Amino acid sequence: MTAVVAEHDDHHDHHDHGPEKGVLRWLFTTNHKDIGTMYLVFSLIMFFVGGTMALIIRAELFEPGLQFVDPQFFNSMTTMHALVMVFGAVMPAFVGLANWMIPMMIGAPDMALPRMNNMSFWMLVAGILLMASTLFMEGGAPSAGWTFYPPLVLQTGNAMPFAVFAVHMLGVSSIMGAINVIATIFNMRAPGMTLMKMPLFVWTWLITAFLLIAIMPVFAGAVTMLLTDRFFDTSFFDAAGGGDPVLYQHIFWFFGHPEVYVMILPTFGVASTIIPVFARKPLFGYASMVYATGAIAFLSFIVWSHHMFTVGLPVAGELYFMYATMLIAIPTGVKIFNWTATMWKGAMTFETPMLFSIAFVVLFTLGGFTGLMMSLAPLDFQYHDSYFIVAHFHYTLVPASVFILMAAGYYWLPKWTGHMYNEKIGQLHFWLSAVSVNILFFPQHFLGLAGMPRRIPDYAIQFADWNMVSSIGAFMYGFSQLLFVYIVIDTIRGGTGEKVTDEVWEGASKHGLEWTVPSPAPYHTFSTPPEVIPTEHF
Amino acid sequence: MSEELKQKNAKLVKKLVIVALLMFGFGYALVPLYDVLCNLTGQNAKLQESAEAEQKFVVDENREVIVEFVTSVNESTPLDFRVETSSIKVHPGQYYTVNFYAKNHRATPIKAQAIPSITPGLAEEFFKKIQCFCFSLQTFEAHEEKTMPVRFVVNPKLPERYKTITLSYTFFDLTNNTEN
User: Fold this and answer.
1) Which of A419, A448, A533, B66 has the CB geometry, 3.0–4.6 Å to A386, for a possible disulfide?
2) pLDDT, tens digit, for every residue of A461-486?
3) For residue A217, which residues of chain B lie inside 8 Å, CB to CB?
4) CA-based angle A170:A171:A174, to the nearest 5?
């Protein structure tokens, strides 16, 4: 959209205060930019915590046999790696982006509920700390997998109730964040910013927020049932009392499948924001992007049993969930087509954000294809619980969500800090990541097809070679991410020293309101709403 | 922020919180819904919970069905649990009795419940038990060994495609369960 900003608020009125000084600024802040920054920094730290756990896993799997950790701790690592990455890294990173960018993209002065915003961040920190504290408890951290399947999870030691309460806190935090996003988008848009004019990132987050409100309470209910089964003699999942463990899987995946889209829909939004800027064309098929996002969100609620093809479903159930799952490929295909069509005959340049976005389109498609393979119920019996599924969901999360988070970092860092990042090191970071992520995850397809099960600390000798390759890729990928930390710190401190313009990227101001405010973005933006001139989509 | 906007936000938040609370309830509503769906699709059908009266069938001497027996205990149940034979060949319509044995290897009394399971699930309605230790909670004195006969019949109406039926029992320790 084209926007005319009537009045920049870089010349503050006297009563307009800047940030407080010292640590209290961060503890009590209600400013969407401060909270966004805290979310982003927190998720980056968690990315390295979860990454360290992944490297412990890959170090143990470098060779067959048991080398470094005992099997119990290994299982804790697979469980905690997943929980930290899902609830500590990827989800908060997107909430951070939402906090920073949604008000600036729709011309709002702040989020609708600033105090709740602060609370949901600190609740997240408390939840993750509670989760992490289980690592030091008798009986060890949860080790039955992040899915918490009973009856296995009921054998967890003292950690069990703490893990359940941590999930409750993370759930409440996510729900508050989601309510805030919805209230901001519904009530705070600048005049003229109609729903169908919003940038795709805002649209995808709106839909994601509704998903979160619908699913997090269901997950909270499922873990509460586990808790009462363990401590209060209920029998939701206990066969002795007439319950059924398979019921847990149904409830969990009713949450779990939309949950994976919570991590991918905002990814789609950022990709749809970045690709048009560097292709110097409007986004191809804006309306179809919105409808495709809605369709994917709807379908996510009716396909959950494709995670459980092997538990013994009726044939009609297998068929229904198989066909419904295959349907998801259609709206997803629309999106991939639109991104490609946006780039088609565009005057493309390949700065780091664009490189990560293109890699996302290619590698996410690959992850999508393996998903399509597993949607076929008869084939899934072979892939189930093997390294093939591990390869599949890591392709849809690492070179997709994480790559796009990196792209978003590079794309908006100049706006956040007012400095340009070091493009050379950025490109080095990209190429190292793009090559190593494939060395890391591609061989896992072969391992899975050859029959290597997931979540085991030791394996048969015939899997040795590809595991070694995968582990080498893991360490390459892990350590190259330190470059990103270096770049972020370097950019905050002044970067290349080059003064960045308000629009930063050539022509970006046609693509989003955030590029019409000064760089760095002042503490308060759009105190007076901008006037959004109704034009065609960019 | 204007008063009007504050009110608008508060109203929306209220609605969204209600949605979240309803979804929490929905998670629990899935529990009875699951039983209904399982019954409709014949999966995981609620197994026979009490004895059937013995009724006369025409014995089909020409047909043989293999009935297999599987015994197991849940992780912490202190029972040695076995069956006299792992499988027998039966004629549909004829009554058979098979003995199961369980011994408490603890020096304290225990209470345990056996949970049956029949595979394939759709054959369940043709497999009738006249007598079974699974119909009630079993009490074992210290080191007591029990012989527990199971009397059953396979209904001759069992469709031809079923050649083998597996009957499995798992004992769960309910000694410390306050509900009993």
Assistant:
1) A448
2) 999 999 999 999 999 999 999 999 99
3) 20-21, 23-24, 26-27
4) 85
